[in-house]
Amino acid sequence: MTDINMANSGASTEKPLAGGVALVTGGGRGIGKAIAQRLAKLGAAVSICGRTEESLMRTAQELRAFGVRVHAQTADVTRAGDIAPLLEATEKELGPITILVNNAGIGGFGPVHEKSEEEWDRVLNTSLKSVFLVSRAVVPAMIRRGGGDIINISSLAGKNTFAGGGIYCASKWGLQGLTGCMAEDLRGYGIRVSVICPGSVATEFSGGGPKDPKKALTAEDVAHAVGMVAVQGPQSFISEVHLRPVRKP
């Protein structure tokens, strides 16, 4: 039984993640904020990071209203030098990380032949390289403790192609492959690596312009899926979730 499951064994059904510690990248706003709130409601202590201090501090204050311990820190998760201090501070304030949600991501839409090398690097580094860097930093401690959950936020763009999505789809297809291989590498240590693939989500993050909220997911829908994965039984492994709006965009 992993540390998180041992913690959960004594937790109430209302707070099944009590005793756990979640790190959510890109947790200051949008989907990341909704995920952090969901995990806090489920009882986990929550650490959030991002590049914008103002939104991080505001979200941290809201998270504390759920009665859980919270850590917020500015960090660029595309830089290994920012990740080590983030983990050190999180573990010092909250304890060992039992749930990692790799949510940081960025769009970059348009025909590939019109995009720059800088745009390619920005999208691939944020949406893919960051998952490698943060996971690589968190995994050794999870292995020592005998378990943990890593949940990567991808997209249905990691399963499908569309005009103008070349760079974005490349990052998400890469994330699908990375997640699957990590899952096989780590399941023997009791670590579950899952990927959640939302369809169209109505947030400030956009690639195709404003979305009809009646034909789009909400950030809370994605957060609900993360919560479902985080509270699954100790013997089960939800490896991939496809999340679509009921009405087609």
Helix percentage range: 40-55%
Order of helices and strands: HEHEHEHEHEHEHE
| Distance between the first and last residues' Cα | 43 Å
Biggest sheet details: 7 strands, parallel
Taking all Cα atoms into account, the compactness measure Rg is 17 Å
At CATH level 3, the topology is Rossmann fold
**Count of alpha/pi helices:** 7
CATH H-level superfamily: NAD(P)-binding Rossmann-like Domain
Main sheet: which strands, in order across? 3-2-1-4-5-6-7
Please give the CATH architecture: 3-Layer(aba) Sandwich
Regarding quaternary structure, how should these chains be classified? single chain
Outline:
globular
Number of strand segments: 7
- Beta-strand portion reads 15-25%
What's the structural domain tally?
Answer: 1
Describe what you observe in this structure.
The protein is an alpha/beta fold. It contains seven helices and seven strands; from the N terminus they run αβαβαβαβαβαβαβ. It has one domain (3-8, 20-243): Rossmann fold (3-Layer(aba) Sandwich). The N and C termini lie far apart (43 Å). 47% of the residues are buried.
Q: What is the compact description of this entry?
A:
The chain contains seven helices and seven strands.
Write the topology of this structure:
Elements: H1 3-9, E1 21-25, H2 30-41, E2 45-50, H3 53-64, E3 70-74, H4 80-93, E4 99-102, H5 117-145, E5 148-153, H6 166-186, E6 191-198, H7 219-230, E7 240-243
Parallel strand pairs: 1-2, 1-4, 2-3, 4-5, 5-6, 6-7
Helix pairs in contact: 2-3, 2-7, 4-5, 5-6
